[in-house]
Amino acid sequence: MMAKSRTVGEEDSPLPYSKKMPLDLEKISKFPLFQGYSRARVEELCSGGEVVHHSHRALLFEFGQPASKFGLVLQGAYKLSRITPAGEDSILYFCSPGDVIAALIMPQEKPIYPVNVHAMGPSWVLLIRREIYQQEWLKEPALISRIQGLLSSRMMRLQAQKMMQRAPLFSKIASLLLQLVAQEPDSGVEVPIPLTRKEIADSLGVTVESVIRVMSDWEKRHWVITSDRHIRILNVEHLVSLAEGLETPG
Amino acid sequence: MMAKSRTVGEEDSPLPYSKKMPLDLEKISKFPLFQGYSRARVEELCSGGEVVHHSHRALLFEFGQPASKFGLVLQGAYKLSRITPAGEDSILYFCSPGDVIAALIMPQEKPIYPVNVHAMGPSWVLLIRREIYQQEWLKEPALISRIQGLLSSRMMRLQAQKMMQRAPLFSKIASLLLQLVAQEPDSGVEVPIPLTRKEIADSLGVTVESVIRVMSDWEKRHWVITSDRHIRILNVEHLVSLAEGLETPG
DNA sequence: CGCTCGGTTGATGCACATCAAAGGCTGTGG
DNA sequence: CCACAGCCTTTGATGTGCATCAACCGAGCG
Q1: How many angstroms separate the most distant Cα atoms in chain A?
Q2: What would the pLDDT profile of A91-148 be if each residue is shown by its tens digit?
Q3: Residues B155-178, mean pLDDT to the nearest whole number
Q4: pLDDT at position B245
Q5: Is the distance from CB of A244 to CB of A178 less than 8 angstroms?
Q6: Contact of A245 with A163, CB cutoff 8 Å
């Protein structure tokens, strides 16, 4: 799947939209979702599947379209979003490697994608047909348990954000960044997803300007540092106490 | 399960906290969740289960406690909430009859209830042990599909609310009320859950006073009417256009 | 009778939205 | 190779929706 021995990362020159690659069961089997399943069984569970590459901002699924496939994020990140009646973008969720996309709606008779899904930076996803989910995946209690685990943590994150509704803006931003670093245990203090201020704003339901005012202040205090959409947290304790509202930004 | 031939409804005199009743498979089998399953199979799926009654504001599950059981709401309603660091109540979700509570976390090894669960008015719930979920429920693809359907609509509602973050308060309130009437198809224009202004506020992350100002105005205009926590929508079209932000309250 | 709960109203202030303007960076097409 | 468009970021001036604080009322209840 990867050329020579180079590490394929964000810096790779973007391929054209939606370039398909052959299945690499070697890598796919390593995802926690498939732990304990034989190579042969994984092949069955992915039968008819395809690995697709997207460049930055490419559209994977479109809201309202019939949902014939679901996805497993292999590399990079995807955002789930909707356009509000007022024409603004509302980001509902960020998906990292290992996350499933649209799996929850596969059991429906005539499923419709409930969100738009866009790549954030160059990303790869494994797409599998809906019939396979219904015929193979639903029969595997272990697999279902893990999917419910993913959905559970997704719901927990949505709920955690709902709890922050009353909190001041700086708490919301701190909370979002900490949530994102927490979901990727080995990411250290670096947010594992390339994030613009606009995307933070759209995720929190506030304006870009407000996000910028808060984060510029944090950069001046050396609590965080941003380089090319990658945010690194330099002072976790401060951010934690900001998230919990124990500290005022004064 | 019910005394004589009387209909047991909200108006019933509340029983003491957590009174247990014998299983009534007759009624339980009628829930959509169990459609297509034989009485005997339903009995297996509910084995060791118990029907529990709660009076208004009684606590069913407590955040942070080990989760040994999950629930199916039979009658009445329950709210899922958390206390914020600032000591305020944040309502995350309203459960009506047919909803499952804490099913999602049953596959975990050592599950912990992720929210507080309180009864809203006199309510009944069917409680089933975690082992039954793991041993029996997970083996039933049809059951899993339906549970994923419930979770799916729950996630859709959370996401719909997240989309309303930027909207003005009157839109949020209209949207919440319409969401609640929509989930109970035969409820007509009456919100199927007894709701105080405080609960609306806690659900939306705003203050009681603000909710009251909006809703008092609506009552003056005869768009809604409230009697003893039961809200009836008199002018659905107006509320819909308010929810979509097509109309200003002026 | 005091208590709690739910609802209501008004005065004041602030956190964030809005509007405006500008500069850097990247990809793209002439 | 340059011009241009789109995206991302930044800063400042001004406005406003909702929070906050305070007080009050009526109903139900032990």
Answers
A1: 59
A2: 999 999 999 999 999 999 999 999 999 999 999 999 999 999 999 999 999 999 999 9
A3: 97
A4: 79
A5: no
A6: no
**CA distance linking residue B146 with residue B36, whole number of Å:** 12
Å between CA of A169 and C1' of C15: 9
Residue A14: pLDDT above 60? Answer: no
Touching check for A153 and chain B: CB below 8 Å? no
Place of tokens 């909710």: B211
- Average pLDDT score over residue span A214-243: 94
How long is the CA A200 to C1' C19 vector, in angstroms? 21
B169 CB closer than 7 A to any strand D atom: yes
Looking at strand C, which nucleotides approach a protein CB closer than 7 A? 5-11, 15-20
Tell me the chain A residues in contact with residue B84 when contact means C-beta distances shorter than 8 Å. 163, 166-167
The answer to whether the beta carbons of residues B53 and B13 sit under 8 Å apart is: no
A23-54 burial code (b ≥16 CB/10 A, e <16) = beeeebbebebbeebeeeebeebbeebebbbb
pLDDT tens digit sequence for A126-139: 999 999 999 999 99
In chain B, what's the furthest Cα-to-Cα distance? 59
| Cβ within 8 Å, pair B166-A205 | yes
> Which tokens in the block code for residue B97?
């009859």
| Statement: the CB of B90 is under 7 Å from strand C | no
Q: Residue A209, CB, less than 7 Å from strand D?
A: yes
What average pLDDT does this structure show over B228-236?
Answer: 94
Closest CA to A79 of A103, A101, A50: A101
> Residue written as tokens 């039979």?
B74
**Nearest chain B Cα distance for residue A62, angstroms:** 16
DSSP type of residue B66: B
- Whether this prediction's pTM lies above 0.85 is answered by yes
Q: Which of A10-14, A172-176, A182-186 has the lowest mean pLDDT?
A: A10-14
Q: How far is the CA of A96 from the C1' of C20 (A)?
A: 37
